[in-house]
Amino acid sequence: MTINDSQQPAPRRGKVLEALARAERKVFTRPAPKSAKAQVKFLLTRAKGSTQALAERLGVSRHTVERYRAGTLTTPQKRPRAALVEETESEWQPQARAQVRHQAATSSGMMVDVTAYFGFTCTGSSDDGREGSVTTAISPTYAKQILDGCVGETGERL
Q1: In the prediction, which pLDDT does 158 show?
Q2: Residue 55 counted as domain residue
Q3: Angle, nearest 10°, between helix axes 36-46 and 62-70?
Q4: What is the domain extent for residue 46?
Q5: Residue 118: beta bridge partners?
Q6: In terms of CB atoms within 10 Å, which of 10, 96, 101, 118 comes out highest?
């Protein structure tokens, strides 16, 4: 058994992307739409008015999207509500998002805060493991590599 075998597994790419999305939400200059009707209206402008395309993205029927748009259906169920929020926030203020990414990649870099587990797993001793927070600055060069790794060739988020 090597030292690497006993360490915690590396975080998944999804957790890194979620953290970047949370950080991007903090730079929004206006709040994203909150009601289902406003969210659908915004997403329909992004989908060029195609209710079928939006329905496929949300995992609901075209008729359901039309009812959200008309305001006859105001409270989505749990899964469609989560999809509406996620899709709205992923499309919201792309210019502000791009500006912050450019600034992090060229001049300011970024700060990363990680909660990690330090120590051994022997119970009841002073060497017992503890959670700790590690905060470090990442230079613009490495921030650019991280951000480039999170965006696909077509510009869509991975």
Answers
A1: 44
A2: yes
A3: 120
A4: 31-92
A5: 130
A6: 101
The tally of CA atoms less than 13 A away on the side-chain side of residue 104 is 22
Q: Has residue 129 been placed in a domain?
A: yes
pLDDT at 2: 46
Q: What is the 3-state secondary structure (H, E, C) of 116-152?
A: EEECECCCCCCCECEEEEEEEEECHHHHHHHHHHCEC
> Do residues 67 and 52 share a domain?
yes
pLDDT tens digit sequence for 74-120: 888 888 888 888 888 888 888 887 888 888 888 888 877 778 777 76
CB-CB neighbours of 151 under 10 Å: 13
Q: Is residue 78 part of a domain?
A: yes
- Cα torsion angle, 17, 22, 26, 30, sign: positive
What is the pTM assigned to this prediction? 0.58
SS3 content of the chain, % helix, strand, coil (to 5): 55, 15, 35
Cα–Cα nearest to 80, from 50, 54, 49, 47: 54
